[in-house]
Amino acid sequence: MRTSLQRTVYTIYARRLRAQLTGADLPRHIAIVMDGNRRWARQAGFEDARIGHRYGAEHLDEVLRWCAEMGVRHVTVFVASVDNLRKRAADEVGNLMRMMEEVVAERLRKPTSIWQVHLAGRLDVLPDSTRHALKLAEEATRDNGADFHLTIAIGYDGREEIVNAIRSLLETAARAGHGIDDVAQRLSADQIAAHLYTSGQPDPDLVIRTSGERRMSGFLLWQAAYSELHFCDVYWPGFRKVDFLRALRSYAARHRRFGA
């Protein structure tokens, strides 16, 4: 627990960081790998590390509020890969799915939420109750009138997404009577992008990964080709506003080259 002096110092530092971002070029789309829930719980002294998933799910609310305050209107969060769902212990996966249903999906579909929900991934690998809760949130926020978009990547694998996009493109072309040679001649990056899970959403400008890991883990492999990457050593439930502002400061200080 912070002392009064620590809280004062923290507040002053956060204000200084915020002031440094005035007039800066900020990302319009941030993607986040929310990593380190279990390690955070063990470090915090909880006997059951799975409780970290609840803290992590609840923390998403706060981070979305920071994004809205800074004018970031598109956020994509990586919840779980297909491998996570298949290879981790059943009780851990079940706990994570309950957190998605009881915390994330339930809060997002409240009338007070400003975020329009989009889903990315293999929803067929999710439990029926989780898939239903997320689809309800997506439907409930479809016409909420707010220009804030949250994409939840769950049951997600970037390589599988690209394969599925090409398969969908070929199937669409076949239904339209186009042969494989014609498709090959006309194939473009934009055509493939139109068949991705995230079709219609802008590519992320900034990707943040918490927990100290320095890898993408298959997250948005196509979309993040020119994104700036920021790796943060804190675990997701401990990701503070100053950590968020530092990531924005780092982004604003870079000169984006887009492959040039």
UniProtKB/TrEMBL annotation:
This is Isoprenyl transferase. HAMAP family: ISPT. Substrate binds at G36, N37, R38, R39, W40, H53, S81, V82, D83, R88, R209, R215, M216, S217. Signal peptide: none annotated. It comes from Dactylosporangium siamense. The gene is uppS_1. Homodimer. Its cofactor is Mg(2+). Pfam families: Prenyltransf. GO terms for molecular function: ditrans,polycis-polyprenyl diphosphate synthase [(2E,6E)-farnesyl diphosphate specific] activity; magnesium ion binding; Z-farnesyl diphosphate synthase activity.
